[in-house]
Design brief:
Blueprint: H1 47-50, H2 57-67, H3 77-83, H4 88-100, E1 104-110, E2 116-123, H5 128-131, E3 145-147, H6 170-181, H7 183-186, H8 194-209, H9 214-222, H10 233-243, E4 266-268, E5 275-277, H11 285-291
Antiparallel strand pairs: 1-2, 2-3, 4-5
Helix pairs in contact: 2-4, 6-8, 8-10
Length: 302
């Protein structure tokens, strides 16, 4: 007969049908989750972000906030500083962290009016768009890298306010258009779209109409440009064409208006007491005609 080992674990007994399972003992330390399933207004955040070993807590929270925003929401430093108590320095540092780890991407695009804008793209899977093939999206699914601060293509460009010549002619407008099309040769940053060149042409024609040589106009538009870059060349040129517009030459100035006639005060005639206008008291026109020119009064308008 074998010796019985009292320390050996007994064979697990099968659960009796209909008998409830025993409850698990609550954890005596650490966190306990009380989760309720979300059905509306929720955002899925990956553990690779929520438990990132290198990102700061500010960067993780800022990434979660950005991923919850709708497409088109602004995520610049000024907007985020107004939204959160953290200062601009901490928010800028957190944005740089997210960009360095692939959760944010900044892309530069040229919009139809010629301006170059920066679009911020939020990625919930860093590197997914460049290292893994993009899956076919289903209806209702959000893209993994959705543009957050994308420009609105449907918004019409703001008209450029520039002066217009007093007497436009086809040769004058053609000379102005040729001058604008060659500005990029003086500075590549002044490359204009066809639409911007069309809007700025009347402004250059107004300068040429004022006896300003094409060389002088080109120097006024291309000289002393901002050293930190030209973000909106069309707006810069429109401002210079308007703010630096020289005066019209004397030949184009309107003649001085003729002085207004002197309007004498009303007076009463010394003979008939009728009202008339004159430089001094006396007689009205009718009484002067009856008395004759011997009265010594001028022929005044009644």
């Amino acid at each position: 007969m074998d010796t019985q080992h009292l320390s050996a674990p007994s064979r697990a007994q099968s659960r009796v049908a209909g008998k409830p399972r025993p409850k698990r003992a609550l954890a005596t330390h650490g966190i306990t989750h009380a989760n309720i399933r979300h059905t509306t207004r929720f955002t899925v955040i990956g553990n690779h972000l929520a438990q990132h070993p290198e990102l700061s807590l500010v960067a993780i929270g800022l990434a979660a906030h950005i991923q919850s925003l709708p497409t088109g929401a602004r995520v610049d430093i000024k907007t985020l500083t107004a939204r959160f108590p953290e200062g601009a320095t901490r928010i800028a540092s957190a944005l740089r962290e997210l960009e360095a780890h692939g959760y944010l991407r900044r892309e530069r695009h040229r919009v139809p009016d010629g301006r170059i804008v920066t679009r911020t793209v939020s990625c919930n899977q860093p590197g997914g768009s460049s290292h893994t093939p993009a899956p076919t999206p289903k209806r209702g699914d959000a893209p993994s890298c959705a543009p957050v601060d994308a420009p609105r293509a449907e918004r019409p460009p703001r008209p450029l306010a520039v002066p217009h010549p007093a007497h436009s002619s086809p040769p004058l407008l053609q000379a102005a258009a040729d001058l604008l099309s060659g500005l990029h040769r003086a500075d590549p940053r002044l490359l204009l779209s066809a639409l911007d060149a069309q809007r700025l042409t009347p402004g250059v024609a107004a300068w040429l109409e004022r006896d300003v040589s094409p060389v002088a106009v080109r120097n006024a538009l291309t000289g002393d440009l901002p050293p930190d870059g030209v973000r909106r060349p069309a707006a810069l040129l429109a401002h210079r064409l308007t703010a630096l517009l020289p005066p019209l030459p004397p030949a184009f100035r309107a003649p001085d208006a003729s002085p207004s006639p002197v309007r004498h005060p009303l007076r009463n005639c010394d003979t008939c007491d009728r009202a008339f206008r004159g430089p001094e008291p006396g007689h009205c026109r009718e009484c002067r005609q009856v008395d004759g020119p011997a009265t010594g009064h001028e022929d005044l308008r009644a």
